[in-house]
Amino acid sequence: MSLLETADTAQLIRLLDLFPAANLSRDWPDYTGKKVEVCKAVARSESAKSIARFVDRNFDSCRQHVHVFSHDGKLKDAPPVLLQGQRIRHQSGVSSLYLIDACYTLILEDPIETVDLHFLWPVRVELESSNHCLVRFVILEKDLGSYATRSYIGTKGATDESSILKHMVNLHQKHEFRGVDLHKGIKALWDENLIDAIRIKFKKHKSTTTEDMDEEAGLKATYPDVYENIKTRPIRSGLFKTLGTTFSVPTFSSKPSDYMLTFPRYTEKLGGTTDVVRQVLRRN
Are 138 and 266 in contact (CB under 8 A)? Predict the structure, then answer.
């Protein structure tokens, strides 16, 4: 049986809560009320197949980390298993959706007690082009204390992204599977005024500098001379706002040398995060 079929109602509610309320209502208009009420109704009434279809269809709208890899062009499908991840949806040669049973242990106080919290963690692997592969992780809720019945002093972690990425690299070594430096694509979007930096950390000759703009003002628009200095230097990390109407995602961040894009906000429009990734790769 699949993880969705064996999951209890609380696990399903936590899974559905990772998605925007608008997407839940769009896919299940018969369930009304506040988001938590809709999540409960769906968890109690809908089939595992229906929920899997929803997660796959709406994955793009979640807050997420996207890791970009290249390969030799001979990688033709995503793996059937991803560490402890169970594949629940598969489109041959295109993508696979996995759920990982991510267990966090809360250490409660007065008296000391440990409580395990199980999250169904969605991860998707996509063959984006003939030689690019994306590994996408939904960002799990970090405020685990909201699930505690009393005060707590700490948590013990679960499977993390780095172990899954290492597994992917080891699994596909023969396909020259490696992370893609995203500097060229990010800087091209910036040069074309499709994005501007709100916060950026960049390398100088003998130091690292951070520029943090006030009230989400764009760095290039405000300090063009600083932009001219930055555009030839390595970017350690950056938070960017999108400009104009090209993108539906308002902001995203990147660590270009670590081949990662982060989307910290929900987006109700399907395809919003994918549009950003593709535009970066097109210019990379």
Answer: no
Q: Both tokens of residue 77?
A: 């499908």
Across 157-181, average pLDDT = 90
Domain boundaries, the chain: 3-59, 64-179, 183-282
Among candidates 67, 123, 281, which has minimal Cα distance to 189?
281
What DSSP assignment string belongs to 70-82? E--S---S--SEE
Rounded to whole angstroms, the Cα distance separating 110 from 152 reads 9
Give the pLDDT confidence score for residue 91 in this predicted structure.
95
SS3 95: strand
Strand partners, 124: 97, 136
Residue with tokens 């059937």: 80
Residue 203 has pLDDT above 90, yes or no: no
CA gap 156, 106 in Å, rounded: 7
Q: What does the chain come to in residues? A: 284
Percentage above 90 pLDDT, the chain: 76
Per-residue pLDDT at 32 = 94
- Distance separating alpha carbons of residues 274 and 196, to the nearest angstrom: 19
76-103, pLDDT tens digit by residue? 999 998 888 899 999 999 999 999 998 8
Q: Are 132 and 69 in contact (CB under 8 A)?
A: yes
